[in-house]
Amino acid sequence: MDREKDDHRRIETTAEAIRKQDDFREELAGVKAGRIARHLPEDHTNTEKGRERRAAKAREQRSQLEIPLADPTYLAAHERVMGTLSDYEDRARSALDHVRAQIDQFETELEDMRDRAARLPDGRMVFRDAAGNVRTEDGTLIDGPVAEAIVWPEDAPAYENFEAKREALARAREREAAIESYMVDVLGSARDRLTDEDNPPSLDEIEAIERKIKEEAGVLLEPV
To answer: Nearest-5° angle of CA 35, CA 40, CA 46?
Structure first.
């Protein structure tokens, strides 16, 4: 009995949220808000015909999503997957914040390396690699009198260190793009389907949505 009461309360909560969304859409469209009509005093329109009309309108506005939510099995699965979705949304936001902080750090460190690099007469940065070769930022070898005339700062960064930091920045940017894509294409699409009031997902689709959320995440959201 308690379980039936809990299910009923959960369905009513969902229904009320849907009604509020409908009110907001009406307000945006410049239509009289449904909330106002619902909360008018009873004697405002207390005719039998008026009550029937309001009841019919309420039935029409009832979301198709409320129908399957009346099934305890469907309701439990829907709530579980919504919980999974919320958890992965939080993890994705955290991972995105982390990788963006890494990008800022790598960009700052690269800028510092560029400031400490030696320069050619034409202004190009140059670095020495472990073998003593002189290379520009893009790896082009510089030799002959031009290379011999370079004045090297004491704290000039090695080419290998510069290249490693640049590669780390490129990987971080790739990861940022992958997380953003996951958030939009997987999590965003999942939320759209799970909250679709007019064409709710089947129980099988709900299960498939949860699998995709987890499988597509893979190691993408793991700390690095």
So the answer is: 125
Whether 69 contacts 78, CB under 8 Å: yes
CB-based contacts of 43: which residues, under 8 Å, 6+ apart? none
Q: β-pairing, 141-142 with 134-136?
A: antiparallel
pLDDT, tens only, 106-164: 999 999 999 999 999 999 999 999 999 999 999 999 999 999 999 999 999 999 999 99
Q: Apex CA 134: angle with CA 128 and CA 138, to 5°?
A: 95
Distance, CA of 224 to CA of 99 (rounded, Å): 9
Taking the mean position of all CA atoms in its chain, how far away is CA 25? 24
pLDDT, tens only, 41-81: 444 445 566 666 655 555 554 567 787 888 899 899 999 99
What is the distance between the alpha carbons of residues 25 and 39, in angstroms, rounded to a whole number? Answer: 18
Whether the CA torsion 30, 39, 6, 203 is positive or negative: it is: negative
As a residue count, the chain comes to: 224
